[in-house]
Amino acid sequence: MFLPRASAATAAAHRNEGREIHNPIEFFYLNQSLLFDILSSIPINSTVRFRARVATLHHEEATVSTGVYV
Q1: For site-directed labelling of 59, which of 15, 26, 43, 68 has its Cα 20 to 30 A away?
Q2: Contact, 25 vs 17, CB < 8 A?
Q3: First to last CA, the chain
Q4: pTM over 0.85
Q5: pLDDT per residue over 4-31, tens digit each?
Q6: CA separation (Å) from 26 to 21, 43, 59, 62?
Q7: What pLDDT, on the 0 to 100 scale, is given for residue 53?
Q8: SS percent in the chain: helix, strand, coil, step 5
């Protein structure tokens, strides 16, 4: 499963330290929690997009806001 919040935090941390992102990744962030409510049905043939924005990034902790768009 793709976790946009973890990916956004990892990318932001690498940028802040002036590091390039490459495989294998030297360090990465994990999701502590992920919760969203589905407000209406999603047609099965739809594309679902996740957009994440890092709100705060301090040492080993990040707060990330994520939007889900159909």
Answers
A1: 68
A2: no
A3: 18
A4: no
A5: 556 888 888 888 888 887 777 777 777 7
A6: 8, 38, 15, 17
A7: 87
A8: 20, 25, 55
